[in-house]
């Protein structure tokens, strides 16, 4: 009897977990199922199944251009965010630097500010410096949003790094730059790879900042949003399914790299 009452909280938590998982996966499953519907509208029952919508999406020039544009922006913002995030993490752990807590708080601030507020403030900022909306403004916005994630991952890795590694490199004649590229950067490698993958995912999925900072050339989220305005169709579901599958695969790989880095 006592064991029954002791197992009750665990059973309740397990039930809540599976209910929450069902709540997350059921809409995604329905969306993916509708992408195979052999009709021009989204509704139940599905009836006949087809792959024609995926063939149409893969031949859609506008969709392919939006994908390439989103990938280009993601690559540029990831490179910038990784460089800035690594430098900030190194600054936080450096000896003799005052206000490290403040530096860390300011670096992580873009991650906790609501997306709408961040987008509006960035739009005001680019207007102040006379930067036109478009590719450069989008890269700036995505970089600001991605830097905190690189800082956290790099900082976690740096704090587990033995200090005698850099000291040994300097004893062998390496200066600070050589020690960074030969010792610190390789040690940070797994964390930076994981951080870069998260940056790519954040950039590709970012809609709010792109909406406020973008020009006439649409990114992938902007293209899907524009198509939704004309009404739902299985073609949109096929686009969303392709994006979901790719981002899920990349996200799982990032999680694998993060766990591998922690194990090492």
From TrEMBL:
* Tagged with keyword Transmembrane: yes
Its source organism is: Aminobacter aminovorans (Chelatobacter heintzii)
Membrane topology term reads:
Multi-pass membrane protein
Using the UniProt record, give the first listed, main subcellular location. membrane
Q: Which domain of life is it from?
A: Bacteria
InterPro entries tied to this protein: Bact_Polyamine_Transport, MetI-like, MetI-like_sf
Q: Which gene encodes it?
A: ydcV_6
Q: What is this protein identified as?
A: Inner membrane ABC transporter permease protein ydcV
Its Gene Ontology biological processes? Answer: transmembrane transport
Concerning Gene3D superfamilies, the annotation shows: MetI-like
Give compartment(s).
Cell membrane
Q: Where are the transmembrane segments?
A: 12-34, 68-94, 101-126, 138-158, 179-204, 236-254
Q: Which Pfam families match?
A: BPD_transp_1
Q: Which residues form the signal peptide?
A: none
Write the record's keywords in alphabetical order, separated by commas: Cell membrane, Membrane, Transmembrane, Transmembrane helix, Transport
Q: Report the SUPFAM superfamilies cross-referenced here.
A: MetI-like
Q: Which GO terms describe its cellular component?
A: plasma membrane
- Describe the family membership recorded for this protein in Swiss-Prot or TrEMBL: Belongs to the binding-protein-dependent transport system permease family. CysTW subfamily.
Sequence ranges assigned to domain ABC transmembrane type-1 in this UniProt record: 67-254
